Amino acid sequence: MEIIDLRSDTVTLPSQAMRDAIHRAELGDDVFGEDPITNRLQETAAQKVGKEAALLVASGTMANLTCLLTHCRRGDEVILGSESHVFYYEAGGMSALGGIFPQTVPNQPDGTLRIEDIEGAIRSDNVHYPRTRLISLENTHNRCSGMPLSVGYTASVVDLAHRHGLRVHLDGARVFNAAAALGVPVTDLTRGVDSVSFCLSKGLSAPIGSLICASREFIDEARRVRKMLGGGMRQTGVIAAAGIVALDEMLERLSEDHANARMLAEGIAGIAGLAVDLDYVKTNIVLFALCDTRISETRFLAELEKKGVKLMSRGNSLFRAVTHYGITKKDIERALAVMRKIMGGK
Ligand SMILES: *Cc1c(COP(=O)(O)O)cnc(C)c1O
Questions:
Q1: 243 lines ligand 1 (CB under 6 A)
Q2: Element housing 213 (H / E)
Q3: Is 322 touching ligand 1 by the criterion CB < 6 Å?
């Protein structure tokens, strides 16, 4: 039985073109700046998101941490969403390793932070307070149903930050999904932000890697931080080769994942005992609830798995399904049939 793995877009395996590119990769020592493919990937990435320079790192978590450590000194404060990946899922790295102080502002269900909430969180100059240094946004928003932040919203946060002398970091792990969903160039979503990170290893299907993009000056400093974190890797062309294929070939097809997520959500909406808000299905993430008390979360997951469908539990009867490269329309049909059966439908 073929497994339909909807737990995450990180389970994607490299395409044949990626494997071929890795196989052929011409290599050098990247700590000396001599890995040709890594250099090419970094130039391509910077250009794609409209920044001067870029830096390859091992993961999205490392990208965010490197950016935060580059922006902030010890005791500085970051304003970020209460549901943000940086706050929730990165092992408190900013505090543990950087002495950086997080101030959370509630995420709205669409992944935004209210402008007035951000403004209210910015500290005045007073010896009692930490120094606010940075605002961190997330696009698309992982825990908020994969919702994309709009061009206008991003611009208004950038404007607010810069008026207060603050910087903006964009955790753009899935920023290309946001661009595809909104039908805008990704540069519209990165304009004005002082650093942006994105993942190669999620919907873009590469095996490893994330990029940080920013000004040349910022990237020079971030390179030092990356080294300090143990991220000075050597023949990184084996990673970068797949990354180049990802940027060349995988961006175009993201809307396919979005269409499959939509199809899945519409199917789930029609199953008694399951509930999903279709207004919050815009990209490749479907967040839905199990509202039939006769079946437990654990049993629901186990029954699905027995029939070859894997999902992630978010707790509180919420489940997450993520579509990606390797999930077809047929898979969605099969996953829906399995769910219908478990929920006792015909
Ligand atoms: C996955 C993710 C990350 C971290 O990426 P890893 O490569 O898993 O460390 C950061 N931010 C967001 C929004 C993510 O979804």
A1: no
A2: strand 210-214
A3: no
